[in-house]
Task: structure prediction
Amino acid sequence: MGFYPLMLPFEKKLKLGQLEVGGGGFIVAAGPCSIESREQFLEIAQAVQTAGASLLRGGIFKMRTHSHSFQGLGEAGFEIAEDVRERTGLPLVSEITDPRQIPTLGSVVDVFQIGARNMYNYELLKELGRSSKPVLLKRSFSATIEEWLAAAEYVRGAGNPNVILCERGIRTFERVTRNTLDLSAVAYVKAHSDFPVLVDPSHATGVRALVRPMCLAAAAAGADGLLLEVHSKPASALSDGQQALTIEDFRALMNDLGRLLPALGRWLEPGPLPRGAARASLAKTLATAKRVSLVGPDAPFTS
Ligand code: PEP
Ligand code: MN
Result:
């Protein structure tokens, strides 16, 4: 079995604006699978920010299995992305599917996401290596850990050290879940590479009810944060509604993380504070989180 060799000592943490990734804090990137409209994206963005998310996710170019499925808003989504990013102040992560999108998408996102289907697209990786914008590199559903780290080296080797890995489940014989979440990969890359690593339990499980326990397990396994799908109306989402947390689910999860992380010597990395009325609401959420207690093994947290 070929283990990936220990790499040269690169800086293990990186900065995303004010946000530190990989320095012990835990970051939470949350938002819809796809940006569908201004109203939808703004509502979800403000809700996740108020609940404590430090980054915003939202697909503009979607890589869907079927050509007749919603493909994302494409360039029509740029103005919405820019507006919501401006209004919340949250850094935005969104998938890039083609090197020709670098200048345009690059002007509205803070992190380029490489999707599982493009992890092997070495020309795209090399092109992103020539930019300095952080890259969130998802593991392909069929990639070994060695191949995943080798893909990350395409970006770093071309000059961009700002790579964050993302474990999003691999394909196995199991069909009850969409993929199989490989948390051992998280512990492995933390021990054998310099890259921060996030976990995406939404695509790893494909099942809303399984997302929360896998988020907690990811934190315990040493992940540097999460990439999560959240929707205000999952039943009418244009993509991946079955795995999206509701806003209420997300609030409960953030509450859980606020209690779990200190036990692991970790903390929730704070994102930019919301503006206006939402700022007071977040302050209240944080104050409430300090008073919560668990009632029964499966009971929700209550104050
Ligand atoms: C996504 O994040 O919406 C996505 C398409 O993920 P993946 O590339 O992991 O399937
Ligand atoms: Mn999705």
In short: Residues 290-303 have pLDDT under 50 and may be disordered. The CA atoms of residues 184 and 221 lie 8 Å apart.
